[in-house]
Amino acid sequence: GNSVTQMEGPVTLSEEAFLTINCTYTATGYPSLFWYVQYPGEGLQLLLKATKADDKGSNKGFEATYRKETTSFHLEKGSVQVSDSAVYFCALRKGYNKLIFGAGTRLAVHP
Amino acid sequence: DTGVSQDPRHKITKRGQNVTFRCDPISEHNRLYWYRQTLGQGPEFLTYFQNEAQLEKSRLLSDRFSAERPKGSFSTLEIQRTEQGDSAMYLCASSFSGESNYGYTFGSGTRLTVV
After folding, report:
1. Do residues A35 and A90 make contact, with C-beta atoms less than 8 angstroms apart?
2. CB of A89 within 8 A of CB of A44?
3. Rounded CA gap, B60 and B50, in Å?
């Protein structure tokens, strides 16, 4: 079946450090891929998406590239801020079907 | 209407009691989804509606759970005879069926604690 695997957290970084959160997926065909972010006490917000191989999604300095050959969609940011501290979820969706989420990766950025 | 609204934000109930949550989706969205999120885990799909029709239910949705969307607008999720294992964040999301490549818009969730 379809599934998403994320690197375990927490990831702890200093401000301005480089961030990578790994995400790999298992799916038949060509799913759409997403990163969602959840700030403390809030719901999930769509951060970025990619709908086909080699697409790069980007938003707020974050980016992720849809790599079909490695079935990956790693999230990166060149310089994190304290305000980026949150839980990040990788997810996939096949056509009009439901979103399937990974377990989430907590990011803590300290000054 | 600027987003998906869920009510209440928090609910504490005694084991064995019934609880009902409400979700108001974005008005133009015809699809509505319920997810459950437990601590340290990603959201797990429970069920979804297209307009008023409930099109899919997860095996996670036991007989104690029922969801409705009577007029294709707001939805309710009821849990009967709550158990401690039902303690979780219940998330509602909505989307438009014509946007297959987009994610959903989520509400802030209802946090249920069963004591």
Report:
1. yes
2. yes
3. 20
pLDDT digits over B7-31, tens only?
A: 999 999 999 999 999 999 998 889 9
Sort B28 into a burial class: Cβ within 10 Å, 0-12 / 13-18 / 19+.
exposed
From chain A, the residues in CB contact with B105 under 8 A are: 46
Within 8 A of B40 by CB-CB distance, chain A residues are 103-104
Nearest to A95 among B4, B42, B100 (CB): B100
Cβ distance A93 to B103 less than 8 Å, yes or no, reads yes
Q: How far is B41 from chain A (nearest CA, A)?
A: 5
* Nearby residues of A76 by Cβ (< 8 Å), 6 or more positions away: A18, A19, A20, A21, A62, A63, A64
What would the pLDDT profile of A95-104 be if each residue is shown by its tens digit? 667 889 999 9
Q: Tell me, what's the pLDDT at A29?
A: 83
Burial class (CB in 10 A: 0-12, 13-18, 19+), A40: exposed
Q: Which amino acid is at B53?
A: A
- Positive or negative, the Cα torsion across B34, B31, B102, B57? positive
Q: Which of A99, A105, A106 to mutate to test the interface with B (most CBs of B within 10 A)?
A: A99
Tokens 């997860």 belong to: B58
